[in-house]
Amino acid sequence: MARKVDSSKKYSPKLGKKELDLLTCLSNALAVSGDEQEVREIVYEELKEFKDFMHTDAMGNVLVTREGTGPDRVRVMIAAHMDEVGMMLTKEDGDGLFEFVVIGGVDPRQLVGKPVIIGRKHIPGVIGAKAIHLTTKEEREQVLKVNSLRIDIGLGGSRLVEIGDRATFATNLAVLGPSLRGKALDDRLGVFNLIQLLKNAPDNIDLLAAFTVQEELGLRGARVAAYHFNPDIGIAMDSTPANDMPHFDGEVNSTHNTKLDGGPAIYLMDGATIGDRRLVKWLTETAEAEKIPWQYRQPGKGGTDAGAIHKTRAGVPSVSVSVPQRYLHSPAGMVRIDDELNTLKLMHAALSRLDRSTLNPQENK
Amino acid sequence: MAKKSNDLLNVLEMLVETPGPSGSEHLIRSKIEAEIRDHVDEIYTDALGNLIAKKGTKKDGGKRVMISSHTDEIGLMVTHVDDNGFARFITIGGVSPLTCIGGRVLFMNGTQGVIGMERLDKDEHPSLEKLFIDTGATSKTDSTIGVGDVCGFERPFVNMGKRLVAKSMDDRAAVAVAIEALKAVKKTVNEIYFVFSVQEEVGLRGAITAAYGVDPEVGIAVDVTRTGDTPKGVKMEVALGKGPAIKVRDSSFIADPRVVNWMVEEAKTQGLPYQLEVLEAGGTDGAAIQRTRAGVPAGCLSIPCRYIHSPSEMVDADDLQHCVSLLAGLLSKGIEI
Questions:
Q1: Cα of B161 to nearest chain A Cα, Å
Q2: Terminal Cα-to-Cα distance of chain A (whole angstroms)
Q3: Rounded to an integer, what distance in angstroms lies between the CA atom of residue B337 and that of residue B334?
Q4: Which of A141, A337, B234, B277 has its CA 20 to 30 A from that of A182?
Q5: Class level of CATH domain A7-84+183-359
Q6: Which of A269, A313, A360 to mutate to test the interface with B (most CBs of B within 10 A)?
């Protein structure tokens, strides 16, 4: 914590046209777990300057090493997952109608009636259901099961897609005043932030950036990425639900998880990781010192890539930081631009202050 | 013999009265370290907080052995404090709402609290969402705890003569056994790594990384196991007072039969009582050791324990002593697996 920060090098992230274009590309891209190629290509395009220090591993993770210049640099792995939840075509019923399964945590109630895009060519389709004119009251009270739903890409569409193709919601990113509305902000915000961190990283650390695959299916990519990097510490940058609507009966909402406008959400414990207390302290102290708003993500369930990283080899102290988001894993999530930029700002400021003393001694609060 | 037994109980009392839920093992770790420092060749804490003590250097006929007993206990973490100072919480590890009600807790920062409950509807089963911790605060502002603060259950150690009762016998009874075995092993051809592991209750996490770091040739977890000797309890052969339980399997792994035989033979050689254990639900660090790197023969020495994961876990004093003798015997001689 002793490290002095050169204030002339202060980093003030912004969301200008260039950044917004990148974020739009990332959010609109189709990269359901197991087929992350589209996002991988964007990452490669954006990080050309690192081409000699970048490779794609056996599982498809994009791994980038940015070495610093200072003495005794801490090797920091930061993971952001490229994949999103979505669907996969499993069987054709004829006439452009396809059965499908969901990939990752998708609420079946969110599916009905949504426009979708399919495969690398973004073939448009729709998850249809019987029109309201023809349904009974009883039918409308039932949740339609995934196996009774079909993706319809129109007559003759059969030639345009293949069984195994991934599908996602056909949502385009939109700026709504101080907010962003889009799909797959979990975790394209993380991907965006990791790209920005690589381009602006402080020199006191070695930044080991992992753009991971298959997080939504069980942190699978991060496991092998962490084995490859064998880092000193691990950080997952992700997005977490904001369940911050007021209660109708005026009661206190004690299960908000996070709140929009509350700043970056720092994890104490989720279903996969107990955040390393020293790293939690490092982040909260940085936020306080830099006057960056922050919040704890309420301890609870769920998991991030940190769950895989911290159990790698002989152990890696790890923590997670997330951008709070309403309506996660749905066709359209909502985040505040300030929360997103403050997350990036916090990460940069924290990395600038990081040295070996952050991990020493084995102290706790 | 009498003095030795007192050592064991004194160490056990010190251990069970120290709070240390998963992820907050710093206090218990420092107490263990102080207790064993003078009896080992090397001692260090790894990246996740496992305390690892090395004793002996591998010689002909010896092996690199990992003994793992977990330092963490189940507990609670605060998720929200309301305007009146009442704290909501989630569990760390397997905590039942039934054993919470009316319970007392001790936070890592020294704050004490009691667990209260919302009014339940008739015949309603209490759920964790209905429970809260009352720390005696009158408002959010004078509360000495906040989101993320961690507590364990608070109960004093009770010596009932044959039986011993405390919170966190799981797994401090095993830590005490490992500590006393560590002291008892004087000369050995083995290179023994006593791992006092972290975060077992949330998924054997410490043992996973410790085993990778130690890279043992054989491993034994020391942990508690359930018993079938209480009125209308689970159907299970293990009983309190019938000696160390040698695990054959549980739901996390099948103990290596060679390790089981090794332990059985040692018990027979020493003339110790022992029982074979098949546990239908539950897991131990043995599972983590077994699947490390290219695989490790692993087993588990179990201490029979009643009322596991309640604030009043009960073990038998003779069982503990026999576990120490068995473990020390296993580690003192050359190992053929």
A1: 37
A2: 15
A3: 10
A4: A141
A5: alpha beta
A6: A269
Domain with residues A86-169, CATH architecture: Beta Barrel (2.40)
From the number of C-beta atoms within 10 Å of its C-beta (0-12, 13-18, 19+), residue B312 rates as: middle
All residues at 6 or more sequence positions from A64 whose CB lies less than 8 Å from its CB, including other chains? A47, A50, A53, A54, A198, A207, A208, A209, A211
Give the chain A residue nearest B51 (alpha carbons). Answer: A362
Give the side-chain half-sphere CA count within 13 A for A247.
8
Residue A55 backbone class (left: φ over 0; alpha: ψ -120 to 50; beta: rest): beta
Q: Encode pLDDT of A130-161 as tens digits.
A: 788 888 999 888 888 999 999 999 988 778 99
CB A138, CB A109: distance < 8 Å: no
Any A CB within 8 A of B202 CB:
yes
Give the strands of the sheet with A174-176, arranged side by side: A174-176, A179-182, A333-336
- pLDDT score at B272: 98
Query: Is the omega angle on the peptide bond into residue B170 within 30 degrees of 0, that is, cis?
Result: no
| Phi, then psi, of A90 in degrees rounded to 5 | -120, -25
Closest Cβ–Cβ partner in B22, B45, B77 for A362: B45
- CA pair distance A82, B140, nearest whole angstrom: 40
Contact B120, B278 (CB under 8 A): no
**Which chain B residue's Cα is nearest to A309?**
B209
Structural domains in chain B, CATH included, are 2-73+167-332 (3.40.630.10), 75-153 (2.40.30.40)
B91 touches chain A (CB under 8 A): no
Chain B residues near residue A274 by CB distance under 8 angstroms: 22-23, 92, 199, 202, 205
Task: Say if residues A259 and A323 touch (Cβ distance below 8 Å).
Answer: no
Tell me, what's the pLDDT at A245?
85
Per residue in B143-189, pLDDT (tens digit) is: 999 999 999 999 999 999 999 999 999 999 999 999 999 999 999 99
Active-site residue, B200 included: yes
Interchain pair A299, B45: CB under 8 A: no
CB pairs under 8 A between A and B: 79
In the block, tokens 């007192």 appear at B6
Per the prediction, chain B carries an average pLDDT of 96
Judge: B48–A317 Cβ closer than 8 Å, yes or no: yes
The confidence band for A362, taking pLDDT boundaries of 50, 70 and 90, is low
Residues of A in Cβ contact (< 8 Å) with B23: 269, 274-275, 277
What pLDDT score does A341 carry?
98
Contact residues, chain B, for A275 at CB < 8 Å: 23
Calculate mean pLDDT across residues B86-99.
Answer: 96
Q: What is the ipTM of this complex?
A: 0.93
Q: How is chain A split into domains, by residue range?
A: 7-84+183-359, 86-169
- Residue A245, Cα to own-chain centre: how many angstroms? 22
Distances (CA, A) of A170 to A114, A115, A238, B23, B165: 8, 6, 22, 42, 60
CB A167 within 8 A of CB A151: yes
In whole angstroms, what is the distance from residue A337 CA to residue B155 CA? 49
Whether B29 contacts chain A with CB within 8 A: yes
Residue showing tokens 């891209």: A29
